[in-house]
């Protein structure tokens, strides 16, 4: 996996986010556990001192509360199994307390705790049996630092001992009679917390490692189609545009990406084919007249010719040169119309007037073929925003076609009308018409069929230019034709 790959970045991102969440969550649980444990220990300790206090009082009452017997009560409460005072044990009331205390002491688990009883002046009166010489000074020292009138709870940590210690005064009337100190070992709890911490420290990295592997596997699966697209894209070349990306089971964003990609390839393929056709057409259109010129020149050079023959050859050559020039000019114009529309200046043009002018000029051309040309103006003025030069070219191209493809003594009619927010100019002829199968192609560049016996210098760019000019005026060109009867071209242009 590369360091800069999306897969790596995604893996790192979610692993770190997940890691952070897990860490925070585990630490929260850990500290909460620690807190709850120490709360539980504290409440246990409180319960224990209260029980001992209560039992001591019970014994005191049973012994009828003399000062010495008081000490015996404490002693009994702490040394229940010792049966310290055999004589007193004979008393039924004491026996009863002993009995129940034995159970309670078991339930409370005091036997595992360290208990010390101090007098109100801080003298050690009694200790439980497990308090040895080593521990006693520690407990005593801690006792002396506590507030003697109140119950306090402290921690003690050393190598040998980990303790939580409660110090609790026992009152008799308003005076403190004894002070109890119970220390409970907390090793078990500490051990529990330590184990938990170790578990956290080990499990988080293991878990993260596992999920990052799993995650990167899933990311790989998600990116599988992308890799497929990449592979397909590499295979697609200008020579081999037929390739498409195919996805077996994708119905998500990737699918729309693939669709868009395939669509793009399809459009590119179309454009390439178009460019191919276009350049071979250009080559062909230029090659033919040049070949004719070369032929004429070669024939003239082969032997001495008469002045008339030379004149004829030169005349043909000039005609062909004009043809080449026309094609080049048309192509330049088309390029300009398609890609440099911003250079054209537009101005308001009144179409009735404008077409009248064009009509006057066309009449002269039509007269040569004895074609009758007419015009029908609209009733209302039709003003559009137009580039006059190109608009003139548009209509001359249409009228030129109409005259060219109409036999002698035919008719051509220009008509203007207003339709909603559009001006419509139609050029109708009574010519040879266009076969239905050619209709969709007549606006293509270089598409031309000479349907007349004359040999006009055509290159099939006229209608492409018409359409491009209409487009820069936000207009459209429609055509209807009936072979043998005639054709009508209608140009719709938005009114100002
Ligand atoms: N009015 C029409 N009547 C019959 N056929 C037409 C008419 N106008 C166009 N066509 C057909 O459409 C083809 C394309 O027209 P277009 O004007 O693009 O080219 P062209 O007239 O042949 O050449 P150019 O205009 O470049 O001199 C023509 O060759 C012709 O076959
Ligand atoms: Mg034409």
Describe what you observe in this structure.
The protein has helices at 6-62, 67-78, 86-89, 92-108, 135-144, 187-235, 253-302, 307-339, 351-368, 388-404, 462-472; strands spanning 114-119, 124-127, 152-157, 162-172, 175-185, 347-350, 372-376, 383-386, 411-419, 422-429, 476-482, 486-494. It is α+β, with helices and mostly antiparallel strands and 496 residues long. The chain has a five-stranded antiparallel β-sheet, with helices on both faces. Helix 1 (6-62) runs antiparallel to helix 6 (187-235) and helix 8 (307-339) runs parallel beside helix 11. The radius of gyration is 55 Å and the shape is rod-shaped. It binds adenosine-5'-triphosphate and magnesium ion (MG). Magnesium ion (MG) binds at residues 397, 400-401, 462. Magnesium ion binds at residues 397, 400-401, 462.
